[in-house]
Design goal:
Blueprint (H helix, E strand, L loop, with lengths): L2 H7 L3 H15 L11 E4 L4 E4 L5 E3 L13 H13 L6 H8 L5 H18 L7 E10 L6 H5 L11 E12 L10 E10 L5 H11 L5 E5 L13 E5 L6 H4 L1 H17 L8 H13 L6 H11 L6
Parallel strand pairs: 4-7, 7-8
Antiparallel strand pairs: 1-2, 2-3, 4-5, 5-6
Helix pairs in contact: 3-11, 5-10
């Protein structure tokens, strides 16, 4: 769906509100009070009324739009722009496109949408062959005093770098040439973690990777006990310059994410890095959805997101 098609489909606020209501009815509304799923529509109150307990649920209630005063058309257009662009779009550019006076509510709206992207991806467990490694992404700390009072470190211990655990699910390719990778990317997950200790990494592996999978890593000591959690653990102790040859998809995803962020998001604050990573992974994992991506994300944003 391009912009012309979007304008034809949603010409005004009323059409957006009507489409939103119809989709909510199709996906089902859950009563906050009794968890009932049968409702009447009260047009005079612009709300759903539970047939069992008569509790009313607003049109926005239970969705990503709850407590938001922004028009429905803002939300639908934001979802469209965030899914139709191959890379991403900044909050400032989104503000310009929507013509809104203030930056902060548009920024908050986009982060709520990114949170829904991340929540949808948590439903999937990585299988088959998994490449696993850590990445370090530049971020702006909430309090710059910590950085200014002490010498900034480099590498794994840097104060200005977010520690990210990167996992890619792959499957082998039967025939390929020397310019291609020997495997095909299926799914990617990127998780901001507090530290790179074995306990932290093992807890994430247990939550995200199927026990029957094969995991490939480098020789970092925090990965040494992964063999007790998965069917097979392959460690490759190689020089840093050769790491990309044994873990090609992990390094490709890290470099692609960094290039995307560098060109669009120039000031990613500490605490919001996971949201930006969720958007990147969501679009990579659904790179073949094409026109279906908008509808899938819209459903994810309204399907009783706060009650799952």
């Amino acid at each position: 769906m391009n912009l012309i098609e979007f304008s034809e489909r949603y010409p005004d606020e009323l059409s957006c509100q009507t489409a939103f209501k119809e989709l909510r009815e199709k996906e089902g509304v859950i009563c906050k009070k009794c968890a009932g799923k049968s409702h009447y529509w009260k047009s005079d109150k612009n709300a759903f009324e539970c047939k069992k307990c008569k509790f009313r649920t607003g049109l926005r209630s239970g969705t990503v739009m709850e407590h938001s005063r922004l028009p429905f058309r803002y939300w639908l257009l934001a979802i469209h722009l965030m899914t139709s662009t191959k890379k991403s779009i900044s909050a400032l550019e989104m503000q310009r496109q929507l013509g809104h006076k203030f930056y902060e509510p548009i920024w908050a709206m986009m982060h709520k949408i990114r949170m829904m992207m991340g929540k949808r991806d948590t439903n999937y467990v990585l299988e088959d062959t998994i490449e696993l490694d850590e990445g370090f992404f530049s971020q702006v700390k909430e309090s710059q005093e910590e950085t200014n009072d002490e010498k900034t470190k480099r590498g794994r211990g840097s104060q200005n770098k977010a520690k990210v655990l990167v996992m890619t699910s792959t499957e082998p390719v039967e025939s390929y040439n020397k310019h291609e990778k020997p495997s095909k990317l299926k799914f990617v997950k990127m998780l901001v973690i507090r530290d790179l200790t074995a306990n932290m990494i093992e807890s994430q592996v247990k939550a995200c990777i199927d026990p029957t999978a094969t995991v490939k890593t480098d020789g970092f000591k925090s990965y040494s006990k992964l063999s007790t959690m998965v069917a097979k653990h392959q460690e490759f102790v190689v020089p840093p310059k050769e790491a990309s040859s044994v873990l090609p998809w992990v390094h490709t995803m890290i470099s692609n994410a960094k290039r995307t962020f560098a060109g669009i998001h120039h000031m990613m604050k500490e605490g919001y890095m996971q949201n930006y990573l969720d958007e990147f992974c969501y679009k990579v994992n659904r790179r073949y959805f094409q026109n279906k991506l908008y509808d899938r994300l819209l459903i994810a944003c309204i399907s009783n997101v706060w009650y799952d």
